[in-house]
Amino acid sequence: MPREGTIYIVINMKPSAGWGLYPVVEAQIDHPRYLEDLVALARKGEPLLAQGNCRSYGDACLYTRVASALALEHLLEFDPHQGRLRAQAGITLDSLLRFCVPRGFFLPVTPGTKFPTLGGCIAADVHGKNHHRDGAIGRFVEELEMVLADGSQVRCSRREHPDLFRATLGGMGLTGIIYAATLRLRPIESSFIQMRTVRTGDFAEACELMSRTRDQYLYSVAWLDCLATGRHLGRSLVMLGNHALAEGREPLRLHSFRQRPVPFHLPGFALNSWSVGAFNTLFYRRQLRRDQERRVHYDPFFYPLDALSDWNRIYGRGGFLQYQFAIPFAGGLDLMREILGRIAASGAGSFLAVLKTFGPEEEGLLSFPLPGYTLALDFPLQGGRIIPFLQELTKLVTRAGGRIYLAKDAILEESDFAAMYPRLEEFLRIKRHYDPHNQFRSCQSDRLGLR
Ligand SMILES: Cc1cc2nc3c(=O)[nH]c(=O)nc-3n(C[C@H](O)[C@H](O)[C@H](O)COP(=O)(O)OP(=O)(O)OC[C@H]3O[C@@H](n4cnc5c(N)ncnc54)[C@H](O)[C@@H]3O)c2cc1C
Questions:
Q1: Model-level pTM greater than 0.70?
Q2: Domains and CATH numbers, the chain
Q3: Which of 34, 123, 200, 300 is most buried, judging by how many CB atoms fall within 10 Å of its CB?
Q4: Which of 55, 110, 367 to mutate to test the pocket of ligand 1 (most atoms within 8 A of CB)?
Q5: Which residue minimizes the CA distance to atom 8 of ligand 1?
Q6: Which phi and psi angles does 137 have, rounded to 5°?
Q7: Using CA of residue 443, residue 449, residue 450, residue 451, what is the dihedral sign?
Q8: Burial label, 51 (beta-carbon count in 10 A; 0-12, 13-18, 19+)
């Protein structure tokens, strides 16, 4: 939500929103096609935000003046021996997969959709189902080519300008514009995943299973029924997986282009505790056997929601909030019980509640992961009525030493933010050095006092 008292001037503007369709901000959007265009935009000295494909949920990708990276979509170099690729920041993960998979490589880390851009993923330092083993995407980034506030072009890495590098991984576009990145890929033999799915009676059993099998499976995630109560609180389907070995001379098959559309915004009344409850129960019961193993293509394993285009319309025109928090392992189960209990009691259940475990913290100063559990839930906005409830939950998360994911946020308060990101001061020192006039800013950074 734009910071109170901030005036956004509207000239030649278009409404623009993140994936949660909230908030909506009138924005002037430029589409630079070349590096020189980025330089010229930065040199204007006006407030500006780099934007990817708006797959962040809240206001992190929004500002009144935006440089969309979508036209910077080219692959620049590929080294098949080293499994290393250099690409412009606006290339989508979808395009990267189309190039890499037939050549026997996969993304080292991927979020739950293939439509974000490479630059957006680096700016949010995204995590996947393998964080407990591999960490976030930043660990696989070797070098960034950036345009800074004065229009200068800089390369940064762990050796060159390491401060800028650490502030840009997870830095939500606030240090400069990423023009291109060099990324290490993961070699694969087949485009399939050997997947094991286990139904658990409650979330504690899911957490225990994911912890116990962490060395056995590269990927793990649990889908929770967040309307179940009592002894079924947080009953789950846990999905564990590894890249499958090739079977015979099977080709490295790509995902399909087809998506089914959600043709219009559903009316608000379509989502209620009955429909969400029915969906969750069907989802939980969709597998007959308690423990089942099969070989599945990478697309339904990593990107089940991509089968529907515009699925965010299911929440209606009013939009929704995705609420994702991470909490330390110590005391984490009790806190999760408390939070899930409050959500189930409120009836404000979510279609999708996704639980993962995180490994160690990242080098990115504002990166989200911390060693512990992370849970992501969707809530229809209900005309804003849900906001105080979620802000209350955030107090619990903050007190427990946890944090909220900036790429999903639209409602975090400045004081909670400062308490949950302990390396904030160091980040701000670096931002002020490279961007002394706070040129790179977003609605979120204004709201959180990140300047
Ligand atoms: C269905 C779904 C599932 C998701 N699952 C996950 C998940 O599992 N794990 C996870 O971590 N995230 C997940 N996300 C969130 C998503 O991966 C991130 O929000 C990602 O940042 C979106 O990238 P984007 O290209 O759309 O960037 P945008 O949303 O447009 O922007 C996000 C941020 O990146 C900055 N940015 C974009 N491009 C540049 C650039 N060239 N230079 C500098 N800054 C830039 C923007 O300023 C903004 O702060 C999911 C999102 C969806 C919709």
A1: yes
A2: 75-188 (3.30.465.10), 192-414 (3.30.70.2520)
A3: 123
A4: 55
A5: 111
A6: -65, -30
A7: positive
A8: buried
Cβ of 420 closer than 6 Å to ligand 1, yes or no, is: no
Q: What is the mean pLDDT of the chain?
A: 92
Min mean pLDDT across 60-74, 100-114, 284-298 is at 284-298
Q: Which of 336, 331, 328, 342 is nearest to 355 (CA)?
A: 336
Ligand 1 centroid vs 118 CA: distance in angstroms?
A: 9
φ, ψ of residue 373 in degrees (nearest 5): -105, 150
Task: Report the alpha-carbon distance of residue 109 to residue 137 in Å, rounded.
Answer: 5
Question: What is the C-alpha separation between 339 and 390, in angstroms, rounded?
Answer: 10
Lowest mean pLDDT among 137-141, 237-241, 316-320, 356-360: 316-320
442 lines ligand 1 (CB under 6 A): yes
Pairing state of beta strands 353-358 and 219-224? antiparallel
Is 233 touching ligand 1 by the criterion CB < 6 Å?
no
Report the C-alpha gap between 54 and 48 in whole angstroms: 15
| The predicted structure's pLDDT at residue 6 | 46
Atom of ligand 1 nearest to the CA of 368: 11
Half-sphere exposure of 140 (CA within 13 A, CB side): 28
CA 9 to ligand 1 center in whole angstroms: 26
Residues 6+ apart with CB under 8 A from 429: none
CB 402 less than 6 A from any atom of ligand 1: no
Query: What is the position in ligand 1's atom list of the atom closest to the CA of 123?
Result: 34
pLDDT recorded at residue 316:
87
The mean per-residue pLDDT over the stretch 364-393 comes to 95
